[in-house]
Every structure is written in C-alpha cells, then in structure tokens.
Amino acid sequence: MKIDNSSTERVKEFKYLGTTLTNKNSIQEEIKNKLKLRNACYYSVQILLSSSLLSKKLKIKIYRTIILLVVLYGCETSSLTLRDERTLRVSKNRVLRRVFGPKRDEVTGEWRKLHNEELSDLYSLPNIVRVVRSRRMWEEKGVHRVLVGKPEGKRPRRRWEDIIKVDLKEVGGDGVGSG
C-alpha cells in the first residue's frame, strides 16, 4: 500500500493504541476484551461509588478518570455497531445510578432507580457515543487517508467509512472524504 509516496507493509494484524486490528475488519474479540476491562474497573470501585462518605463530585471524578478512560482507550480504531453503542450507554448509566443512588418517589414514597433522562440532567458531560465519535475525528487528515484506502476482507454490517461520515456530520466536520 502506498500513502504519500511511502510504501507500507501488508500484515494480517497489528496493535494500534492497545487495540488489535486485523485484515478481516473483525474487532469482536477486542470489543469483548474492552467490556471485560470495563467491568473489572467498575467492580473494583463500586464500593466507592455507592459510599455515602464521598461526595457526588468525587464519585464522578472517579468514574471519569478510571472507568471512562478504560472504555475510551483506543476507541479511535473502533467501528461501533448500534449494539456496541447501546452497551456503552447502558454501562455509563449503570455507573451513574450507583453514583447518584436511588430516588424517593414523591407520590408513593418508595425508592426507585433514576430514569435515563434524570441521569442526563444530573450528569451534564457529553454523551459517551459522541465522545467516541469526536475522538475518531481527532486528526481529519488521518481519517481521510483511511476513507480513500480499500481494506480487504469481509465487510462489517456498518462499514467504518459510513460511520466516519456520520461522525463528521455530527461533530461538524467539513465533509472530508465525501464525494
């Protein structure tokens, strides 16, 4: 493969940002590994996240600096399926429910879990899927190089190229790679 007059060796797989990329465009094993790491982080700090001795602000900081960074590490190379996006949202909400705790229903007086909308109101940082998309757009020139390349192997249900184009629209890109 040639990029800007320099040749690149063809390999079956390589590691980039801690993620193993293959010539078959399959990242299912990497996604499973990330989920295991995320779960390990979550369970290692869940006692802190539910402690009444720590402030909610500190608990959010624990989430952002430990759990979220593990989830986002290497996300620049992932082409998330809708199922993967849902899994990210669910895991984020699980942690936030642990941080903010239950809410007493004003009508019945019973304790209940916070609804997703209530969590969004309490946690004002960007949607986790949007963060993943913006990280993929970090270097537009590199994204463009990937868009013009022709990878080999079986095409995933959602092509990386299509996901990047959606990301560009969503984060306000200038249409790099369209046309």
Please explain how this structure is put together.
The chain has 179 residues and is mainly α. The chain has one domain (13-103, 113-170). Helices cover 53% and strands 9% of the residues. The chain has seven helices and six strands. The chain has helices spanning 28-49, 56-72, 82-100, 116-122, 128-136, 140-148, 160-170, and strands at residues 2-3, 6-7, 13-16, 19-22, 103-104, 111-112. Strands 1-2 form a two-stranded antiparallel ribbon. A two-stranded antiparallel sheet has the order 3-4. A two-stranded antiparallel sheet has the order 5-6. Residues 175-179 have low confidence and may be disordered.
Oligomer class: single chain
Instruction: State Rg.
Output: 19 Å
Q: Order of strands across the biggest sheet?
A: 1-2
Sheet-strand content, in percent, reads: 5-15%
Mean pLDDT: 78
DSSP summary, beta strand count: 6
Order of helices and strands: EEEEHHHEEHHHH
Report the biggest beta sheet as strand number plus sense, adding barrel if it closes. 2 strands, antiparallel
How many DSSP helices?
7
- Compute the number of structural domains: 1
Q: Which structural class fits the helix and strand makeup?
A: mainly alpha
Task: Give the helix proportion (percent range).
Answer: 40-55%
Shape: elongated
Through-space gap between termini:
22 Å
Low confidence ranges: 175-179
